[in-house]
Amino acid sequence: MLPAAARVYIPVVVVSACGALVTGPREGTPWATAAVLAVLYAAGERTGASLPPVLFAAALLLPPGAAALVAVPGGLLAPVRGEPRPVRRVWHAAQLALATAAAAQVRTAFGDGPFARLPGLLVPALAAVLAFCLFSAALTAGVLVTAERTAPSAAWREALLEPLAPHLTYGLVGLMAAVLWQGPYGAVAAVLALLPTHIARWVVGQARRERAAHQATVRALVQAVEIKDRYTRGHSERVGRASALIAREIGLPPERVEALRLAGILHDIGKLGVPTRVLRKDSPLTPEERRIIELHPGYGHEMVRGIAFLDDARTAILHHHERLDGSGYPYGLAGEAIPSSARLVAVADAFDAMTSTRAYQATRGVDDALGELRRCAGSHFDPLMVQALIRAVRREGWNPAVTADEPESFAPAQARRHARREAPARRTPEPRP
């Protein structure tokens, strides 16, 4: 149910948009141009690659009412999130129509003469873009305040600052399309000019959707591990953050930084293959149970084998418990035989194991943990990775959060289990298996 203020505000905006639309019929209005632009904009919205330059071209080529009509079909066809969808679609169409009408009104206020052709046309075109941004931002801020109860200052910043720079760029593309439309080649040249923008936005949209799907996959995997082994709650995300700090500090390119961040987040995914009774056992592990839990890097490696975007993370997941002196597992690799990605994640994992704040466990300070890593550099950990983490933490700081806000009925059992199983790990930066 929408708040009362939103139930008043949204109809007022919709009625205002209808008022702008009825001013459309005017003698000499180029309806063919309006129809082509409306189809172009609707097609872009429907395919998930919205084309704001079309609206800016409409504001430069058409009177305000006709320009507003260009935005309506696309606004009604655009994909929306959340409920109620019909209200959101109508709102979106009304907002675009009013903003486009305002841009066209500003453009017509400059009249003809020097402002009807380049370079003088740049001034009214810029004014029209700014009018569109301000009007659209004001309407969006209004719905954020009334429907979502956002603070007015925060709503205004969100609605205006983020789209301003992109819309200035789209305004230039819309200006180019409008000039070409009035040239000797007409609509064909203008559409061809808009086509690269449409393709670029579609590609960016696809990449954004793919990234969102990747993030959802990672979140689901991490949540599955944390449900099974509550000790790891929040640990995965922090290891990912520390891994990214180290990767940036040693100068890796952005794509490698992201791959290692994912490796840090998913380094314990193999625990899904370990029996829950072993992960949650209250008493110390037997040698057989420890051998079972030490299989989790191999399980994790196999679990992500078929996920293409995690290919770069697989090696780190498999070898993050190896140690430079050969005392680690699962293969007892030593020195340079351990992949660099695994050496990096191992440092991040140990650092968080020492600094995590939990309701049932005392924690080491950041300086103490970094000192312990430095002491074990060369035997357990790669000195290059340790020094990189130290520099990054000294510069950017580290804020470990509470990661085990379990009910009181659960915390004592966790505390006893952790004390019995992890006491040796408190003497060295060896994270929980």
UniProtKB/TrEMBL annotation:
PROSITE patterns: HD, HD_GYP, PROKAR_LIPOPROTEIN. Residues 210-405 form the HD-GYP domain. Residues 403-433 are annotated as: Disordered. It holds the Pfam family HD_5. Residues 232-354 form the HD domain. Residues 421-433 have a biased composition (Basic and acidic residues). SUPFAM superfamilies: HD-domain/PDEase-like. The chain crosses the membrane at residues 6-24, 55-78, 90-110, 122-147, 159-181, 187-204. The keyword Transmembrane applies. InterPro entries: Cyclic_di-GMP/3'3'-cGAMP_PDE, HD/PDEase_dom, HD_domain, HD_GYP_dom, HDIG_dom. It comes from the Bacteria. The keyword Cell inner membrane does not apply. PANTHER family: CYCLIC DI-GMP PHOSPHODIESTERASE TM_0186-RELATED, LIPOPROTEIN. This is HDIG domain-containing protein. It comes from Actinacidiphila glaucinigra.
